[in-house]
Specification:
The two termini are 42 Å apart. The protein has helices at residues 3-6, 10-28, 32-47, 72-79, 110-126, 158-164, 175-182, 186-199, 247-280, 285-296, 304-316, and strands at 64-65, 92-93, 140-144, 153-157, 172-174, 202-204, 226-229, 239-241, 282-284, 320-322, 329-332. It has a three-stranded mixed β-sheet with strand order 3-4-8. A three-stranded antiparallel β-sheet has the order 5-7-6. A three-stranded antiparallel β-sheet has the order 9-11-10. By secondary structure, it is mainly alpha-helical. A hairpin with an 8-residue loop joins strand 3 and strand 4 (153-157). The radius of gyration is 26 Å and the shape is elongated. 46% of the residues lie in helices and 11% in strands. The chain folds into four domains: 1-62, no CATH class; 64-138, no CATH class; 141-245, Ribosomal Protein S5, domain 2, CATH 3.30.230; 252-332, Arc Repressor Mutant, subunit A (Orthogonal Bundle).
């Protein structure tokens, strides 16, 4: 086992477990409630804790509210006569417990916008001090093809849905116009488009049929290429799962996770330094760093360079000061 593996604390390990559960949720098409039960069982097993509600056999997933399952939003729609709302379920997660990257902005199609707007209005009425951030990179939905026989049900990501719904407006688009219409970031948009071309749901006049295979890359798609819906699309399956993780989305989540972990560790190191210095009042740099490492070694292995940065930060905040005649001696000020 490498040093990196040994050095993982619970938050890092749990993030990987949670990511695996998210993939199960996407790929296996299980319901939100079943996913929540699976999540909770593994969470409580890993943390060796018990659910707070003593009467429930299956613990609830921490920091989660499934408002749609409680029929609150459905009641709201009926009361306000919102009968053209897309059928959907929402899981509201606390940003304090879930380390997800905020998605880049894009333009919601008219088929989805009214539903999203109505839910935001409903939610803000219930929780005036909270703000919702849609995690489109972890959302999914079903589309039905009305132009094929038989009619297929496509299980797609939100990004794929946004692209495919363009063909309700026009049957042919250039790549450039599609990207401008959706405002999805170019690199992400090309990933989505490449996957849809491989599925053969859409076609490109400038790309030969034998190129629609695993060798097709985003860099092969030019902005002036013409894209159209494949009206002769055929599949042996009626339900087709097209929802696969995107590299750029996964990478951003991983980068944000490591950034969050680094910031959390700095706060933990600073707290340890303050505790030690409050007790000792005066201490040399080397001895302080040694004590910090000893105190935190059960959680993670602090790097010397990071400890030094934290000491400098605490000096700037006027928690500590260096002795004038001995620069390697620190005094506690508070």
């Amino acid at each position: 086992m490498s040093r990196i593996d040994r050095d993982l604390n619970f938050n890092e390990t749990w993030m990987r477990v949670s990511e695996g559960l998210e993939r199960i949720y996407r790929i296996q098409e299980i319901s939100p409630s079943s996913h929540g039960e699976l999540y909770a069982l593994i969470y409580y097993y890993c943390t060796n804790t018990q659910p707070q509600s003593s009467g429930s056999k299956i613990p609830r997933r921490p920091a989660q509210n499934n408002l749609h399952d409680g029929d609150q939003y459905q009641t709201y729609c009926e009361k306000n006569k919102l009968d053209d709302i897309v059928d959907f379920s929402v899981i509201v997660l606390s940003s304090n417990s879930w380390l997800f990257a905020a998605p880049s902005n894009f333009i919601l199609p008219v088929e989805l916008k009214k539903t999203f707007d109505s839910f935001i209005k409903f939610y803000t009425q219930q929780h005036t001090s909270r703000k919702l951030t849609w995690l489109h990179q972890h959302s999914k939905g079903d589309l039905q093809t009305l132009y094929t026989k038989p009619r297929y049900i496509l299980h797609v990501s939100t990004y794929q849905m946004v692209v495919l719904l363009l063909f309700n407006k026009l049957s042919r688009w250039t790549v450039e116009r599609m990207q401008e219409e959706t405002q999805i970031k170019v690199d992400l948009f090309l990933q989505v488009l490449c996957g849809l071309l491989k599925s053969k749901l859409i076609t490109c006049a400038e790309i030969n049929d034998n190129e629609f295979d695993e060798d097709l890359k985003e860099t092969d798609i030019k902005m002036n290429y013409n894209i159209q819906i494949a009206e002769d699309f055929k599949s042996k399956k009626i339900k087709i799962n097209l929802n696969v993780p995107l590299k750029s989305v996964e990478q951003k989540d991983i980068e944000d996770l490591h950034r969050t972990i680094d910031e959390d560790r700095k706060m933990i190191i600073q707290a340890a330094i303050v505790r030690i210095m409050r007790a000792r009042q005066t201490l040399k740099d080397a001895l302080l760093m040694q004590e910090v490492i000893q105190q935190l070694s059960s959680r993670f292995e602090p790097e010397i360079s990071v400890i030094k940065k934290c000491i400098d930060m605490l000096i700037e905040k006027e928690y500590l000061e260096r002795q004038s005649n001995e620069n390697d001696v620190l005094h506690y000020l508070a």
